[in-house]
Give the backbone structure.
Amino acid sequence: MGLGITSGKYTLAGTVAVGMLAAVRFDKPAGGACPSGRTREAIVAKKPVRWGILGPGKISRTFAAGLQAADGAQLAAVGSRSAPRAAAFAAEHGFNRSWGTYEDLAADPAVDAVYIGTPHVFHEEHTLLCLRAGKHVLVEKPFAINAEQAGRMIRAARENDRLLMEAMWTRFLPTVVAVRAMVAAGDIGEVRMLTADFGFRAPVDPHSRLFAPALGGGSLLDLGIYPLTLASMLFGEPVQVSSLANLGATRVDEEAAVIMQHRGGELAVIHSSLRFDTPRHAFLLGTGGWIEIMFPWWAGTRLRVKVGDRDAEILERPHRGGGYTHEAEAFMELIRSGARDSEIMPLDESLTIMKTMDLIRDQWGLTYPGE
Ligand SMILES: NC(=O)c1ccc[n+]([C@@H]2O[C@H](COP(=O)([O-])OP(=O)(O)OC[C@H]3O[C@@H](n4cnc5c(N)ncnc54)[C@H](OP(=O)(O)O)[C@@H]3O)[C@@H](O)[C@H]2O)c1
């Protein structure tokens, strides 16, 4: 076994360094070890984590399916503003404990951790409710509407000694785990630029979560956060941010373009849109090659890697449970180990990303009600 890339496949952990392909190490695509190196068997042997779902909407449905594929997870209860909606969600997912208020769910002694799947504007309120009731909290992206809210959420997690994490599921996908390992190993040299986008043609409805200011509408917070968080993962906090957006009839950003420069001069060029489809891939451009996280990059299973003068190679990195299982398993492993923060999606980084989005919105004059 010599080259990292041979016959279209990156070899797994233990690869011998050859040229720029120094020691490529990452988890096996399925059934492998978790980031801590503990085996799945070791985790399964532990008590299941009992999950409560708060806000049984679109993404909660998808996440619940991801949980059902996760080792050591138990879907225990759901809370909705409507008792019949909660009961229907529970029945759909094969359990029967449902609550007609979020407060009842938060107080449920049969729940260890709550997944918050409500629109962004409610993330702070619902996170505080659950943390104060003693639950660990996995809160959907974006973490909050602004950095002020994010700061209060982080303080509450610390005061209540509970685990809190932004559900930035992309970071836990096997593709992104592999990308991190390749970058750390210097496989494509020094990464100097990221170009990434996320846009799709959403039905224009001024009352919908995507377009209504009262629900935190706009492309940046919903979609642009994905490339932004990828830039943050690669380069850290930006030192300079330039951006432009077109605000639509409801005065939220329907399309946005952002260029950022980072401490080492690295550039990130990203765009997001609610009005048209974008190619939806991410390119990491390095001095020794490039990596494409292929469509749909934030949820994908394939990478295209070009090192030096070699032909580009396609790497398959399948995910489980629609991609949502990986973040759930990582979160449960943190709970079991007593951790109060994630090294993969740290709270301080969620806060910094919120600050960057505050700055970008400031450049456009976009504020949300109550700000
Ligand atoms: N990770 C991902 O892939 C992903 C994908 C899509 C969305 N998201 C994130 O997940 C969050 C929810 O998105 P979604 O598309 O699932 O939202 P959604 O279906 O529109 O709403 C989710 C649920 O929130 C509850 N809710 C509470 N107050 C509400 C209010 N005033 N108006 C509307 N709903 C309210 C509702 O449940 P009850 O009324 O039954 O309590 C609703 O079903 C957003 O922050 C979004 O950014 C993440």
Remarks:
- Residues 55-59, 80-82, 85, 117-120, 122, 140-141, 167, 169, 209, 222 surround NAP (CB under 6 Å).
- Confidence is low (pLDDT under 50) at residues 1-36.
- The first strand starts at residue 5 and ends at 6.
